[in-house]
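Here is an idea for our session: we take a single protein and study its fold together. Which protein we use is up to you, so please pick one and set it down. Once you have written the record down, we can walk along the chain together:
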Amino acid sequence: GYIAAKKRILLNQGKGDTAIVGVDDSYCQQICTEITAANRRTIWPISAGRAMGRGVYALSGVLYDATGDRVIEVADLLRAPGLPGKHNWQNAAAAYAAARALGVSMEDAAAGLITFPGLAHRMETVGQVGRVKFVNDSKATNADAARQAMSAYPHFYWIAGGRPKAGGIDSLADLFPRVAKAYLIGEAANDFADVLEQHKVSCAVAGAMSSAVMAAFADARETGEDAIILLSPACASFDQFPDFEARGDAFREIVRELAIGARAESVRA
């Protein structure tokens, strides 16, 4: 089905075309092997997890170009605020490879990555109050999507919940040790709390977004340390919001109001 459809796109390519294929999973590795055997196009594999003799890859956040005669270090993606996390390093490798295939210089392609501002609702930093940073990943409407953001931060305060998808958050159990505390909203709140409590993760049923943000901020600020508050719901939004954009916008507005309040508090002090 889905894999076959993607293969057909690549098989329609001919001489002079370039195929850019991620090889960090077995399915795409197989596709890359098959189209390489057909030998009708230029093929650049990309990876965010291993060094390769050809293609474009990222290791520990550093992007390398192996499309020529030698491997060249081209960008430190840790300096790209809009591209946090390993999955974004793979995205960066793909974008860089596509730009190079279209004739963009190595320097300009790398500069574009470093200055890329990121996308709304996708691991978007929407504000910082003191040492507490707020990240809007409202686009994460299922557990697989939430995994990408959760994997990017070693320790965070997690706002999750909404209208649950099949499987809930059970598949994220390996990432639960990263959660300082969870603040649960929407229809999934009680079920998610049951799962988290089974794994001995501190959590609170907040119900509404505003309550979740305020409680998470209070807990994070109390530590006096650098902290991340991550909205990555692992759920659809339709129980409380028209769509994931509205959910992310609500989060952003609450953070904006928090920041205004913090500035006013600082002035009074």
Q: What stands out?
A: Residues 124-268 form a domain with the Protein-Tyrosine Phosphatase; Chain A fold (CATH 3.90.190.20). The first strand starts at residue 18 and ends at 22.
